């Protein structure tokens, strides 16, 4: 099997707020924009989309049981950026499996995890 791209779709009751969150606060580039569905580019082969649950055939999970995990190069720079855009991220955590991690939540309640590999002692 050869997968060309991947896309995670979040079905949102707070759709407009979620679009603003991912576009204007997180800073993701829009690749497709409809009046009920917006797709964002994560990298060359990965996408994240938000769909208005009132126009979709799938219901929202109300932020339960979903973590969108994004590996980044510089977790410290991400922490500064998230603070600058007013998202008030918690302190960076060092996990025993060798990752530095920040968790925030989108307007729908989905957990967004930014992480990078730890270098040196934890």
Automatic annotation (TrEMBL):
It holds the Pfam family Glyoxalase_2. This is VOC family protein. Coiled coil: none annotated. Residues 4-117 form the VOC domain.
């Amino acid at each position: 099997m050869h997968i060309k791209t991947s896309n995670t779709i979040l079905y949102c009751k707070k759709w407009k707020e979620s679009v603003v969150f991912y576009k204007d606060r997180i800073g993701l580039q829009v690749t497709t924009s409809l009046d009920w569905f917006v797709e964002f580019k994560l990298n060359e082969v990965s996408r994240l989309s938000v769909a208005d649950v009132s126009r979709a055939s799938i219901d929202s999970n109300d932020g339960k049981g979903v973590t969108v995990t994004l590996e980044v190069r510089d977790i410290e720079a991400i922490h500064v950026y998230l603070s600058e855009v007013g998202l008030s991220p918690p302190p960076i955590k060092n996990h025993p499996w060798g990752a530095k991690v920040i968790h925030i939540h989108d307007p729908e309640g989905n957990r967004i995890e930014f992480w990078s590999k730890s270098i040196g002692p934890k």
